[in-house]
Specification:
The complex is a heterotetramer of chains A (about 350), B (about 100), C (about 120) and D (about 170). Chain B is an all-alpha fold and about 100 residues long. Helix content of chain B is about 75%, strand content about 0%. In chain B, helix 1 runs antiparallel to helix 2 and helix 2 runs antiparallel to helix 3. Helix content of chain C is about 70%, strand content about 0%. Classes of the chains: A mainly alpha (about 350), B mainly alpha (about 100), C mainly alpha (about 120), D mainly alpha (about 170).
Chain lengths: ~350, ~100, ~120, ~170
């Protein structure tokens, strides 16, 4: 019985997720186009090209799917599973409201972080098995980037968990009177930058820089297998936007409107901001990327944890105010300093 | 509830497989992987005994997490040594790595 | 069935459904798509040039140092999470414990920084 | 023989892990061994979940599946493929090794199979992170701090080896 309920819920979630991904893809096409002052898709489906994503899916279905001759066929075929399945397992733990959640775990946030570890193994599998030097290079660039940004990512989550004394995502949301972004601005900034890098979207799209290493770890993939990598990327996009909303922006809490609507609204706003960043900024250099990860974000997230812990313990009564004041001071001071030194 | 013996027998088999791997392999990296299998068998045993016999004092779990952390450190240093030896001797064969025999 | 087990049953079902979903997508496209292979098509893609050399290039050892640093801080994160949920109850002693822990690991990061291995090559 | 949900799940996971382990110690392809190793280790976390130790399970995935596998893959990229692929992976003591492991296992099984353990009568309850943390940070503080020293030593060791490489 529980088995059937589980399967039913999973099917429901997969349909929901796919719907949102289709909306995301269409929105992204339109947002990019309008920011670049062009129209984007307008033909398919008459109304602003709404059927474009469906047309893309059909096209991908019909594409020939080659497996390179020299490749390791087994690993080549298993890699899309390794990238997609854990990403989809993680999405079940995301609550739409205080009761609407499929997998409600005591260790919620840790569960999502732990599953994200599979992504880079899957990338290396794809890149290595293709037997192509560019894909191997792309895979290792991707793995290097992802593992550098995984750390600040995990550490800022610890910072949020400290304020709520829990790893459960629903408890974390319920304990936020003021959105955490206003109490921990350092954590929030680090989290958003790390999220953008985890998704390896521009300005952090070094792993699949088309002009340098063709397309990264999935060069040799075509047709439906390639589409699965693309799909997994959008699933992680949804996960990261939802995590940002839940951990830092008060999740499903908000006045008047019902909780799931608030939650989706926040996710879509975040998605829009990420798309905006993606289309506006140029790509960073690999050395800048590594410097940012290890020499700026990692110390900053550790500082965030140390500040939070000390202030909560030393000033147990007024800690939210004290923490907010301290962290905002540090952020503003850093910005002023940077503004001075860079002309 | 699953009988405790299932876990114990499972980990005994896993440990023996790992043991065979350590004895029969000559590639250093595969050797390390077999050691990891044995470590995991031990960890499963720790957790199972701890949960079934003394559910409130979680001593076995503590052993497990410290074993995990030190196992991770062991793999890190072990692989670095293997890579260094490989750069010097161009081999991963543990039968040929006998620099300590001077 | 307890809440705990049903939550993890759902996790397992998510894995199964995702697996089947991927398998079905690939199966359908395997039926629909054309299959016209020829030796040139199966060569590694190098912008249309004939590939030269093998796929394996020698990597720099610094890649490995990054992986090790990642491992070490990953272990730190794994210990930080249970601490984050209880440090308020345990008070100032647990704060000092964790500060010592973070400080020791930070020494490692500083050492790596000073040795100049935190550079991408 | 008890047939219920968790037991079936356990048997599936156990057979998966054991066959993966057999594959690891017999395969001739080192890359396959690494990826199957990943499969085995992440299934072990399923065993921990059945033991109601979800935190250990998450740690297993994070540390073993994530970090250790990545590190093994990075190390493999530092050695040439030949070293992993073309030399015979097994040595001549295969028979002896099999005999030793077999004798070891049969002794264990003879002792273990009839054994009845003095298990506690209570039903298992999920171990919360909070309870786990409370014990870890009161009773086991010293080993916890030692872990940080151990990791620091490991890092310094690798950096020394790596800087030798660079010269």
């Amino acid at each position: 019985m529980g088995l059937l309920i589980g399967i039913g819920l999973a099917l429901l979630v997969i349909v929901l997720v796919l719907t949102h991904i289709i909306v995301f893809i269409w929105c992204e096409l339109k947002i990019f186009a309008h920011i670049m002052d062009r129209y984007g898709p307008i033909e398919t489906g008459k109304f602003h090209g709404v059927l474009q994503p469906f047309a893309d899916v059909l096209k991908l279905m019909n594409k020939e799917d080659t497996v390179p001759g020299a490749s390791d066929r087994l690993i080549f075929k298993v890699a899309p599973f390794v990238v997609f399945v854990p990403a989809f397992m993680a999405i079940g733990a995301i609550p739409l409201s205080a009761t609407l959640v499929v997998i409600n775990l005591d260790i919620g946030a840790f569960y999502i972080i732990a599953l994200s570890a599979f992504t880079f193994v899957g990338m290396i599998m794809a890149g290595w098995s293709s037997f192509n030097k560019y894909s191997l290079l792309g895979a290792f660039r991707a793995a290097g980037q992802l593992l550098s940004y995984e750390l600040p990512f995990g550490l800022t989550i610890a910072g949020v968990a400290m304020m709520a004394s829990s790893l459960n995502l629903i408890t974390i949301v319920n304990k936020q009177v003021v959105p955490n972004a206003f109490i921990q601005p350092i954590g929030f900034l680090v989290f958003v930058i790390a999220a953008e890098a985890e998704l390896s979207r521009s300005p952090f799209d070094i792993p699949h820089a088309e002009s340098e290493i063709i397309a990264g770890y999935h060069i040799e993939y075509s047709g439906m297998r390639w589409a699965l990598f693309y799909l997994a990327e959008y699933v992680s996009l949804i996960i990261l936007c939802s995590m940002t909303a839940l951990l830092f922006l008060g999740g499903f809490k908000g006045p008047i409107l019902p909780p799931p609507v608030w939650f989706l609204l926040k996710v879509y706003v975040l998605f829009f901001i990420l798309a905006w960043i993606r289309i506006t900024f140029p790509r960073v250099r690999p050395d800048q990327l590594m410097d940012l990860g290890w020499k700026v974000l990692l110390p900053a997230s550790l500082l965030n944890i140390v500040l939070t812990a000390s202030i909560i313990i030393l000033l147990p009564d007024i800690w939210p105010v004290a923490l907010a004041v301290t962290e905002f001071t540090i952020v503003i001071a850093t910005l002023i300093y940077l503004g001075r030194t860079r002309r | 509830m699953i009988p405790l013996n299932y876990f114990v027998i499972f980990s005994a088999i896993l440990f023996s497989i790992g043991m065979y791997g350590v004895l029969a392999r000559r590639n250093a990296i595969l050797l390390l992987l077999s050691v990891e299998l044995m470590l995991n068998a031990v960890n499963v045993n720790f957790v199972a005994f701890s949960r079934y016999i003394t559910p409130h004092t979680i001593v076995g779990l503590m052993y497990t997490i410290f074993a995990m952390a030190s196992g991770a450190a062991e793999i890190g240093v072990g692989l670095a040594i293997i890579v260094t030896i490989y750069r010097g001797k161009q081999t991963l064969n543990v039968d040929e790595i006998d620099m300590l025999k001077w | 069935m307890s809440e705990y087990l049903s939550a993890y049953l759902n996790v397992a079902m998510f894995a199964v459904v995702a697996f089947c979903f991927v398998a079905i997508l690939l199966g359908v496209s395997a039926v629909v798509r054309p299959k016209k292979e020829n030796p040139v098509k199966l060569e590694p893609y190098e912008c249309g040039m004939v590939p030269f050399g093998g796929a394996w290039s020698q990597f720099n050892v610094r890649f490995y140092v990054f992986a090790l640093l990642f491992l070490i801080f990953d272990v730190e994160i794994a210990f930080l999470y249970p601490w984050a949920t209880v440090f308020r109850e345990l008070g100032i002693t647990s704060l000092i414990e964790m500060l010592v822990f973070i400080f020791i690991l930070l020494l490692g990061l500083v050492y790596a920084w000073k040795k100049g291995v935190l550079k991408w090559v | 023989m008890t047939v219920n949900g968790p037991t079936i799940a356990f048997l599936i996971l156990a057979s998966l892990i054991l066959s993966a382990a057999v594959y690891i110690v017999t395969t001739r392809n080192i890359m396959h061994a690494v990826f199957v190793h990943l499969l085995a280790l992440s299934s072990v976390s399923g065993i921990y979940i059945l033991l109601y130790a979800q935190f250990i399970a998450a740690m297993q995935v994070l540390i073993y599946a994530g970090a250790v596998t990545t590190m093994v893959l990075f190390a493999l990229m530092l050695v040439k493929p030949k070293a992993g692929m073309e030399i015979a992976l097994d040595n001549q003591q295969k028979g002896m090794a099999f005999a030793t492991a077999g004798v070891f296992l049969s002794v264990l099984l003879v002792v273990l199979v009839p054994k009845v353990w003095a298990t506690s009568q209570e039903k298992l309850t999920p171990l919360t992170v909070a309870k786990f943390g409370k014990i870890l940070f009161t009773k086991y503080v010293l080993p916890f701090e030692m872990i940080s020293v151990l990791l620091l030593v490991a890092l310094i060791g690798v950096l020394v080896l790596a800087s030798k490489e660079e010269e």
